[in-house]
Specification:
Alpha-Beta Plaits; Aminopeptidase; 476 residues; 2 domains; 6-stranded mixed β-sheet; 31% helix; alpha+beta; binds zinc ion
């Protein structure tokens, strides 16, 4: 690939001017991203293994051209991890940037308006300045590449304010299974004060936001057994416990009339979100009517005392994901089933531990089962909840960076979902992550016609350098 040359900045005495740098290099900044987007680095499909390797090599080329040190493509049991660093002074803080260069498959390809691996810029209602249409444009090549270009600005302006390490992996879209052994093995190399990730979204182009929380998960399968075989409901009905009836009752009892979960000890340790943070979160635009309409429900429901956005982010939940047993074929078959089953997921919030919750659920569910049946509980995968508090200096640096470039500080947003690597980073590296995502929900990531706003791409490149500056200076 073509090596980049760093232009010398004539006014390096004037501190950072990312905006005019971007203005002066617009076409190149887009073309370099386009080059990456043309490589179909689909991690899920072995037919694309060479392209994944080619993309890793391209990232390596960019890192070397930017003057990063110890640039290396680390092979793993799957796709490689690309690493590079700029260590300016051990007394300064260290930021580890994480991103991924692999992409989702383009299927169903017929639903794309154009070749998913030949980027084009098109205007949309949400992106009047145009958006880059290509697989990976937002998730995550566009967002990951912003960090390399933001670093180029720091270099060009002759001021890298702290130590920066880059770790770009190639297996995020297939579960990052080789990342954990890698970070455990290279714990010292990856040592950092904070991790910076752009792989999420923000509320809107004029409402920047930072994801500060992610929910954890406890997932169990329950089995309720009554008689040793399916029985004739005429001959036995009324005298034998029906596991399906019992299971329905048991599940019904897991919430009280106020929508709270009744599992003994379920809320122990649940972190209480401060009124200030709840007030900040409430600034995010939300319409209950639009929410109801979008999923065609007559009204919302949930735990009393909390709004819909709070119920889906800062509060834990318990939901049946599936329930089965007995006869579910066509017509009627009059049986009392021997067994009934359900899959139950619990979304967890900071202060809860998946193993502890699974244990509490098991105890509770066993205790509420009547003597007429037996129950068996099988735990499935789980995940730790995560939070970066808004009082964290790294969060405040990020928010101030948005304020500098967007004119308004970022709003903290807790997401209802999970990003397991963030909890993993905290466990292994002992560092918090700042999720500075610049994508929008409408960007169609993982879907046909994925795109990323040109505004968002440039705004990300413009904002990131300020994060380093404020973080290194210390925000008061
Ligand atoms: Zn991603």
């Amino acid at each position: 690939m073509a090596r980049l040359t760093l232009e010398n900045n004539q006014n390096s005495n004037e501190y950072m001017d990312p905006k005019s740098f971007i203005e002066n290099h617009k076409d190149r900044l887009l073309n370099e991203l386009f080059e990456l987007l043309r490589i179909p680095s689909i991690s899920a499909d072995p037919a694309y293994n060479d392209d994944v390797a080619k993309c890793a090599a391209a990232i390596e080329g960019h890192m070397s051209a930017l003057g990063l040190e110890n640039v290396e493509v680390f092979p793993t049991a799957g796709h490689p991890i690309v690493y590079g660093e700029c260590l300016v002074d051990p007394s300064l803080p260290t930021v580890l940037v994480y991103g991924h260069y692999d992409v989702q498959p383009a299927d169903p390809i017929e639903l794309w308006d154009a070749d998913p691996f030949e980027p084009v810029i098109k205007k949309t209602d949400i992106h009047p300045e145009g958006a880059i249409f290509a697989r990976g444009a937002c998730d995550d090549k566009g967002q990951m590449f912003m960090h390399l270009k933001a670093f180029e600005i720091l270099k060009a302006e002759g001021d890298v304010p702290c130590n920066i390490k880059f770790m770009i992996e190639g297996e995020e879209e297939v579960g990052s299974m080789n990342l954990e052994p890698f970070i455990k093995e290279h714990k010292e190399k990856l040592a950092c004060d904070v991790i910076l990730i752009s792989d999420t979204g923000m509320i809107a182009n004029d409402v920047p936001s930072i994801t500060t929380g992610l929910r954890g998960l406890s997932y169990v399968e329950v089995e309720v057994t009554g008689p040793n075989r399916d029985l004739h409901s005429g001959l036995y009905g009324g005298a034998v416990a029906n596991p399906l009836n019992i299971l329905a009752q048991m599940i019904g009892s897991l919430h009280d009339e106020k929508g709270a979960i009744t599992v003994e000890g379920f809320y122990d340790g649940v972190e209480v979100v401060s009124d200030e943070e709840r007030a900040l979160m409430a600034k995010a635009p939300f319409s209950q009517e639009a929410f109801n309409a979008s999923i065609a429900i007559p009204s919302g429901m949930g735990e009393q005392g909390y709004t819909t956005p709070e119920r889906t982010s800062i509060r834990p939940t318990l939901d049946v994901n599936g329930m089965w047993g007995g006869y579910i074929g066509e017509g009627a078959k009059t049986v009392i089933p021997s067994k009934a089953y359900a899959k139950i997921s619990m979304r967890l919030v900071p202060g809860q531990d998946p193993d502890d919750i699974t244990e509490k659920f098991t105890k509770h569910f066993t205790a509420i089962a009547p003597d007429s049946v037996s129950v068996k509980i099988t735990p499935h995968h789980g995940g730790l909840p995560y939070v970066t508090h808004t009082s964290d200096p790294a969060y405040q640096s990020a928010s101030k960076a948005y304020e500098t470039t967007f004119g308004v500080p970022a709003l903290p947003v807790r997401s209802g979902g999970s990003i397991p690597i963030v909890a993993l980073f905290e466990q292994v590296l002992g560092a918090k992550s700042i999720l500075m995502g610049f994508g929008l929900d409408s960007d169609a990531i993982h879907s046909p016609n994925e795109h990323y706003g040109v505004f968002n791409y440039f705004k990300g490149i413009e904002t990131i350098p300020y994060f380093y500056k404020y973080y290194a200076e210390g925000v008061d």
